[in-house]
Amino acid sequence: MRIDAKTIYIASSTYLPKVEWEKQNGNEWIYVGVDQDFDEGKITQSVYATFDTDDVYVVTDRHNSHRASLADAIKSVKEGLEKEGYLLWNLSFDRVVEFGRIGVLRKGKRG
Prior knowledge:
The chain has 111 residues and is an alpha+beta fold. Helices cover 30% and strands 28% of the residues. The protein has helices at residues 5-15, 40-50, 70-80; strands at residues 19-21, 30-31, 55-59, 66-69, 86-89, 95-100, 104-110. Strands 1, 2, 3, 4, 5, 6 and 7 form a 7-stranded antiparallel beta sheet that branches. The longest helix is centred in the N-terminal third of the chain and has 11 residues, at 5-15. The radius of gyration is 13 Å and the shape is globular.
């Protein structure tokens, strides 16, 4: 079943406040860099460790959110992170990785 961008965005907005964020060394956010500092290896490791399927929802806004493979999702983040934040959700909206425009990420699961 194909879900449209608006529905993906609304579901994400509904579930995001219910997420319990993982802490590493007392911090939710992990620096992954932007531009030349972008650490694709760290991002790839974090994303693949979070999701157990190859497809995720890539959430940016109500017009461009979509389903993608993990590899394509990571590529989208790499290409657009400075312009906008990203959320990657598994297809049941219970695991998420959030990317901030300043080159940080955090991982969590819906409680």
